[in-house]
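User: Modeling request: complex.
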Amino acid sequence: MSNKDNLPKENEKEKEKEKENKIEEKEEEVKQVVTTTKVVAGKEGVDYVKIVEEFGMQLITDPMIEKMGKLSKTPLHHWIKRGLFFSHRNLDQLLDKYEKGEPFYLYTGRGPSSESMHLGHLIPFMMTKWLQDAFGCPCVIQLTDDEKFLWNPKLTLEKVHQFMIENAKDIIACGFDPEKTFIFSDMNYIGEMYPNICKIRKILTFNQVRSTFGFTKSSNIGQIAFSAVQAAPAFSSSFPKLFADKKKVNCLIPCAVDQDPYFRLTRDIAPKLKEKKPSLMCSKFIPSLLGLNEKMSSSNPNSAIFLTDTPNQIRNKINKYAFSGGGDTIEEHRKNGANLKVDIPFHYLKIFHPDQERIEQIRKDYGSGQMLTGEVKKELISILQDIVKKHQENRKAITDEVLQKFMTPRQLV
Amino acid sequence: MSNKDNLPKENEKEKEKEKENKIEEKEEEVKQVVTTTKVVAGKEGVDYVKIVEEFGMQLITDPMIEKMGKLSKTPLHHWIKRGLFFSHRNLDQLLDKYEKGEPFYLYTGRGPSSESMHLGHLIPFMMTKWLQDAFGCPCVIQLTDDEKFLWNPKLTLEKVHQFMIENAKDIIACGFDPEKTFIFSDMNYIGEMYPNICKIRKILTFNQVRSTFGFTKSSNIGQIAFSAVQAAPAFSSSFPKLFADKKKVNCLIPCAVDQDPYFRLTRDIAPKLKEKKPSLMCSKFIPSLLGLNEKMSSSNPNSAIFLTDTPNQIRNKINKYAFSGGGDTIEEHRKNGANLKVDIPFHYLKIFHPDQERIEQIRKDYGSGQMLTGEVKKELISILQDIVKKHQENRKAITDEVLQKFMTPRQLV
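Assistant: Request completed. Predicted assembly structure:
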């Protein structure tokens, strides 16, 4: 199977569509805001080209995708081929080094803000799991229970601990290699990272973090000091037990693009600490069921498909809430086709449908009005039900012993 | 032996002298500054009554001293009787509770800023050791290696670790009970305290710590967040392994008065955390050999007697540098006597001479001009040589195993 061949083409298409979107959005004067705590987008979604420019990142290019396909031990993931992971920092150099025999480790994470994760939360972990298999990488996964506690006035440490444990199980269910993966909560692991955290804090002033994260004088001092906790795992020296023999290992961070400010800062300070700058690989957001102008959100159950949803719940949510770009009447739809740019079911299919040819067929048939919203939704429902069901089965198999193993600091292979 | 009887009287004398000093200093318009990082005093020393008023503390009263003497299992320490420990917060309530059978633990500490400690550094530890014996208390001693690293641009983690180890040995040499004492470095122990540290940080804003500690926007984020690390040990819940059975234990903090701002803040936030407010017992500073208007300082070797000084070094320092209040000529001295208010040898004798009657004799004879500076210095030299020699002998006996025991988190008796 040669998945690799046709994919730069797919990516090309996505990019053209983005350019179109961008031009139209400019005309509408949409004010887009993407920070580590807020995402505000126009009604046709986030302008990712603009983000890349503003953040000073680079787009993942077709030659890079081809190279990843060549170096990978497993078929290229469709999220790379389709440009869901679209921007990067220094990924090209990392791949060059890998080609020359220099290994790297993966670092990703999550703030455990609620017990039940949704599909959007899963994206970086599924990507990271693929990267682990593809490049044989050790992987560290940070659960920032401290962060969530510091930012949410109502959250207790007991509650966030419970979220952390439940989230860890969902993450393990993505299929990480127990011999190569260390999952840690800041609350449990801070001690080992503390020397690096102090080194990082020493060179960051209030002014610097204020401008990056928008703090005020009323921000609590835990928030102000937190960025160092998220930066530390990007340096392999924060894991003395994991990387016993090799002191400085290259790091690749797969994450949603709103986390870039943390790692821009991390990259800025790396040379001062005589550490390697981590590479980044960033994803777009999974939009809310309700429309392209927001992210899936745990606080609105109807905006997202949760990993705990039953098949019925998934069907009802898609049928009832997934924003349709189809015509108001069947006649109108048959005549004008669906507006694919704003259609959530089609957008989700582009992410979750494994078969690119089928996506192209739907793009044609639904875009022309030949296929109806109900039919597209039905296809999406079945795919999402499958993904969630499989996840739930995997999760059920995770015992406390398995969890314990993943969360114990130990030498990774 | 009834040391207790004559001591309120001694304290009375000190207080009268302080009042005199205060009046004179006001006439001179001395601008006194006492913060956690700076002490600036007039040429006749720090105005402690003013500090107590400014900080909102209370003076330790004679009835309190009498009560301590009554409750103590050992003879009352002369530093309490002589008012070297002069101010407090809630010490009276703590003693009342102790009398009713409620135990307390002791918490003190040090920032390991250099390898060799001086006599001034030893004061809180010697007082704490006495309190441990007198009231049978468990004791925790914090070495803030992180603080010193964050504040000193040139200090490396390796260097501050070395200082921490050397300082820990000097502290143990004060005679702490190995079954009742836990010495910890933040760099090693931060993990266990981190839940409490996060709770504290969550309720402290940049504005609050800025006004207390004088931070600016260019302060590093480690400094800004540090106060929580010094506050946490004042709550017994920060030591789950030490106080396994009794969750909330009263805390008494013996320290130099410049550390009060940390604990004022700690007491302010205690109710919000449903923790007990720690009690405080604060000492005056040991002045520099060079004069009353500064503290002993590690950065000027001639300003202090170090615990590593040889008998010869002690003799030379006192003879050469200890600021004398004696007359410029013998004739003048015999006629006018010594100015005891600014005389450093007499000031040191008042702290370190064990015999109160002898101090009174010297006060009379030296103050009248009958005794010469050289004679007073000779008596001081002999006393300091003895203290330092005994300390050095104690320290020599401290093996790595002993150090290890003190620094291992474990249930205290």
